[in-house]
Write a structure and sequence with these properties.
With about 400 residues, the chain is α/β, with parallel strands linked by helices. About 45% of the residues lie in helices and about 10% in strands. The chain is built from 13 helices and 11 strands. The longest helix has about 35 residues. The two termini are about 70 Å apart.
């Protein structure tokens, strides 16, 4: 058992009095709710996924409520008024698949004993253990009748009380004992609301203009450094252009340029394959359908070097793409093979593999069957776009088959 003392505030009955709190430990709660856990445990509903999921979700919410109640003596604003649980109708074999839905109420009180009793009573479970536990409700001396005369009137005339009343106007008021933290939460919300109302665009700009100026200046200096580094690397490797097609910030772009510069210093002759090419820092490593050399920004230098050394192999696939597209077009009755204007970037090697797979699958189908008779003999008026395996099957707004 844990006992501690604290001094009362003006919110409680007598100023300067002492309150005695008896806090229930987590082991006592587990012991008291043991029959309840045996009745609603999700493992008992393995063959009934719906009931199992309901009980599992409700137990998570109940656990969070009890943890907040025991550790912080507060009620979470997100705590529902009741939780649904499924329990077996009976232990008879013929009623094995029959369940009763029970709404377990969560009392809006910090007295854990009251909460435990209501949980057990809602499931018709014994409460002897809970009845023997001392109450956790605050005992105060002197009694509430000893308020100084005019204390309540003084509290109601205070600024925060009036503002809180204005904020809560029209709401259903709850008793202080049932929701001890509700008024504090409403007051907190009221303060936030007032701050937001007083925050005009002019005030916000005035508050952040210094920070924006400092950051803009820092970014400008960094961009100038990156631009100079890009020009140096482009000239050093004989590149046509360096493009940064990645969602990361400019600092990451600088890191990529420095890594490429260091790679050129360590392997001066190995990067000759990049001459007169467009280099793109992107989300994958390979050669794109446009013939650009793509380097993944998250790769290590060794992977970049392996691609650059085998760039001729990737270029060979790039040269074969028209033949693969023509073969697929012939199988699909002269359908046009096109590409979307803003289609995702793809490797030439992977795109060639997709074209071969589709062509082979269609030839296998035609070896066993025929195209539907409703199909026209010539599909040249249609256009087919082949994208990655993870792409959607759809018809684009322009009529392309994707």
């Amino acid at each position: 058992m844990y006992i501690f003392f604290r001094k009362c505030t003006s919110r409680h009955p007598a100023s300067g009095a002492l309150q005695l709190h008896r806090m229930i430990s987590s082991s006592e709660v587990a012991t008291a709710l043991r029959p309840f856990y045996f009745a609603v445990h999700p493992d008992l509903f393995g063959r009934y996924p719906q009931q199992r999921q309901v009980n599992e979700d409700s137990l998570k919410l109940l656990s969070a409520h009890l943890e907040s109640l025991l550790s912080q003596q507060r009620i979470l604003p997100s705590t529902p008024r009741s939780l649904p649980f499924y329990v077996r109708a009976s232990n008879a074999p013929q009623d094995r698949g029959t369940f009763n839905l029970i709404k377990v109420p969560l009392e809006r009180t910090v007295d854990a004993k009251v909460l435990l009793r209501r949980i057990l009573e809602s499931c018709n479970l014994p409460t002897e253990y809970v009845d023997k536990m001392p109450s956790t409700k605050n005992s105060t001396a002197p009694p509430s009748g000893t308020h100084p005369e005019g204390f309540q009137q003084q509290q109601q005339n205070s600024f925060y009380y009036r503002k809180r009343s204005e904020y809560n106007f029209g709401k259903e008021q709850a008793d202080d004992d049932d929701s001890p933290f509700e008024k504090e939460f409403d007051l907190f919300q009221f303060r936030i609301k007032k701050v937001r109302e007083n925050e005009t665009l002019k005030k916000w700009l005035r508050k952040h203009v210094v920070t924006a100026t400092v950051r803009t200046k820092a970014v400008q200096e960094l961009q100038e450094e990156v631009q100079k580094l890009r020009e140096d690397v482009t000239k050093q490797l004989g590149l046509r252009e360096i493009i940064y097609d990645c969602g990361w910030n400019v600092e990451h772009f600088r890191g990529c340029l420095k890594s490429l510069e260091k790679l050129a210093e360590l392997h001066p002759g190995a990067l000759d394959g990049l001459k007169d090419r467009t280099l793109v820092f992107a989300a994958f490593t390979g050669v794109s359908l446009e013939g650009h050399v793509m380097l993944f920004t998250g790769d290590v230098q060794r992977n970049w070097l392996e691609l650059i050394k085998t760039i001729d192999k990737h270029d060979s696939y790039l040269r074969k793409l028209p033949a693969y597209e023509y073969a697929l077009s012939q199988v699909l009755r002269n359908i046009r093979i096109g590409r979307r204007k803003f289609m995702p970037k793809a490797q030439a090697m992977a795109y060639a593999s997709h074209l071969r797979k589709i062509t082979t699958a269609l030839l296998d189908y035609l070896g066993r069957s025929k195209f539907p008779k409703s199909w026209p003999q010539d599909l040249s008026q249609f256009e087919l776009v082949v994208e990655s395996e993870a792409g959607p099957l759809m018809v684009s707004p322009t009529g392309q088959l994707i």
